[in-house]
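Subject: two folds for Thursday's group meeting

Dear M.,

Sorry for the delay on this. The cluster queue was jammed most of the week, so I only got both jobs back this morning. I'm pasting them in the order they finished. Each block is the input sequence followed by the predicted structure tokens. Could you check whether the formatting survives your parser before we put anything on slides? The first protein is the one we discussed after the seminar.
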Amino acid sequence: MSRLTNSGFYKIKFWITPEEWGEILKLFKDREASFVSTNYARTSYDKQQVLQAYEQFYDYYVANEKVADYFPHFVYSIVLTMDQGMSGFFVRNEGISFPYHEQWAVDELPSIMISLPKDIRIQAESGEGTDYTYEDIREYRPSIYKLYEELVSEIKNRTKLLRFSVPEPDGSRVQKPSVRISEKAAEQIRSGWIFDRYELVMDTK
């Protein structure tokens, strides 16, 4: 199959508490997952370090006041060896833009995105040397795809679609990003600085 046929990513975006994130990470228990930073050194971390980093990232948004000189950042590769091969997920923060006073707000609401490539590169030998094909990951790495489905199921069981309203001259407008949020996370972030500063209203119950 061609790269075009299988290109793209499976992905889910969400916002949950550090405690809930810790529960999600339990799905990697006994799977010998490596949590690797995307920096040049490719630094490895254990699950506890990743959880602590998420807690710092989360606390930035639920705090009553915005912390100066801190740039929220949460990016990791989760590498696993499954189905006799190496593959994994990409986890990173992704901002949610919203309008404010007829322009885009300077700040963004947070979300975390977990993604899995739809294809996997398979090495093949040909008469002209090494060649590669890009095959459906569901067929060549079914275990990693099953784990992705487990992650999505766990996240969906804990969350609802994020809905919030922004102020407008004649009322308010509901924003409907493709992001899911847990009840506890919605409760905490609605009391944080970003909702107060931009007069946002949480519509997710």
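Second protein, same layout:
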Amino acid sequence: MAYSRPSLAVETPTIHLGGKEHIIRTGCGSVSVIVYGDQGKPPLITYPDLALNHLSCFQGLFFCHHAASLLLQNFCIYHITPPGHEVGAAPICIDDPVPSIEDLSDQILVVLNHFRLGSVMCMGAMAGAYILTQFAIKYSERVTGLILISPICRAPSWNEWFYNKFMSNVLYYYGINDLLKELLIHRYFSKEVCGNINLEVPESDIVRACRKLLDERDSNNVRRFLQAINRRRDLTEELKRLECRTIIFVGDSSPFHNEALHINANLGETRFAFVEVHACGSMVTEEQPHAMLIPLDTFLMGYEWYKPYRFMGIPRSPLGPRCIAPELLYPEKMGVKLRPIKTRVSPLRPRAKSS
């Protein structure tokens, strides 16, 4: 079923996606943080996937007017960028040691301390979701919740390891060429938006825009991040130590779909929701950001600082605010399909009571 953008019954404020960039020095290099919104509000930090930054990974979500209004009404946004992935980034010296995933996770603590932030909401995509999950496990008192998009948590399989090594070699010898961009595009997006030359189906605008943004990345900087990702360890056993509420979004065409299911099955007693978006790849934030709207609104209801946003003109959903909260707090699997956005949701599981 096609999704049509509803018209608004009331005039809504213009969303400005600018922000101020801060360059913060850490023990393993400098990191760029873009801040926008009211810094008096609860903080939401984001972390993108390989070769991406906030413009190419989260812009679609913040261009989705209702979702952006919901987030900006409740948060000040802090976009953390992997080293050397910010707009206009210079090449990192090849003699500098490659940071580990643990180093990148610890950088987040430096960022929070720099801005004097206490506990934060975290939103990460793929590799960024892994880094934020590791951060939440290690520094549980600094995380109020996790919003994970097509997350990964296990060490690379042999297939992924060789695939990443191949990409690393392409980056080293040829830079970000057409082949490398093609590999990354299929990491991010579903075949529905990638187009098909034989069937004369054109690429979507989001794929074409992503290709242009990839041209801006420095190949050595991307290779360093890829090397860190390829040396990650398995977090499966540590998932049970997560203390914060968690919501997982994953496209059913994502190459990380099985990883998301694995995390979903190993979250222990942590309260969580699982949202599977149909006909979508890994970057739900770009490909189908509207599918995140109602689940995000429902997820945030559990926080005392939450301010509801009126979704004027949005079609009613069986998981609307009036009925979703009680259902999401029960342990039964719902398996509901939201017809306008073709999404399957599994419920938040309450923490078991101690005897």
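Two things I noticed about the second structure. The beta strands are 20-26, 29-36, 43-47, 76-81, 120-125, 143-149, 245-251, 272-277, 336-338, 343-346. Residues 158-174 form the longest helix (17 residues).

Cheers,
T.
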